[in-house]
Write a structure and sequence with these properties.
Elements: E1 5-10, H1 16-33, E2 38-44, E3 57-63, E4 69-72, H2 85-107, E5 119-125, E6 131-136, E7 141-145, E8 162-170, E9 173-181
Parallel strand pairs: 1-2
Antiparallel strand pairs: 2-3, 3-4, 5-6, 5-8, 6-7, 8-9
Length: 188
């Protein structure tokens, strides 16, 4: 284990098995996510803090490269499982692992980037009132059915109204689903 671990115990004895469990969790975090520059763990025993009653309070603070940090310091004071120190430690490190995973993705530039939904303009509505066509920004026309229009807004559609949509492949080619009105005509 490369990460220096600072352990503080309040109202509970920092017995060797507890220290070993804490170090094991830090080693596991290191093996999954690489370099952690420092780690501080504070374990507060039951009854030492008035609000937590008979529950353990475990807090973890990790320092990461580029000044990033992960801090797990909220305790669910209504969760009776925190009366077991092993559960309290394991659950706190599970939450730290989730946060560390998010930070590792950010460091590696792997955060999800959602493409904006395509936009278009209603080109025409069929006289039957069951379907229409959207003129896309690249000059194509895409079919959509009245059931694809969100919030039952099909009757508010007319040529020239701007919409967003999701494009998918249908039986007869491209079609639009999840059609949403934009602007003053749109849904809020």
């Amino acid at each position: 284990m490369e990460t220096p671990v600072e352990m503080d115990f309040h109202g509970v004895e920092g017995s060797p098995w507890i220290q070993d469990l804490l170090e094991e969790h830090v080693r596991e975090l290191e093996s999954r996510y690489g370099r952690i520059t420092s780690c501080r763990v504070v374990v507060t025993g039951p009854g030492h803090r008035h609000r937590s009653g008979g529950l353990y309070d475990v807090r973890v603070h990790l320092s990461l490269p580029e000044g990033r940090e992960v801090a797990v310091d909220r305790v669910n004071h209504s969760d009776e499982r925190y009366s077991d120190i092993r559960f309290a430690i394991n659950d706190t490190f599970k939450r730290a692992r989730r946060q560390l995973q998010d930070e590792a993705r950010k460091l590696q530039g792997q955060t999800k980037h959602h493409e904006p939904q395509p936009t278009g303009t209603i080109a025409r509505i069929d006289p039957s009132g069951e379907f229409g066509f959207i003129a896309t920004q690249d000059g194509e026309e895409i079919y959509f059915h009245r059931n694809s229009v969100l919030a039952g807004a099909f009757d508010r559609l007319k040529p020239g109204v701007r919409v967003t949509f999701a494009e998918e492949e249908g039986e007869k080619g491209s079609q639009a689903s999840t059609v949403r009105l934009m602007g003053k005509h749109g849904l809020r």
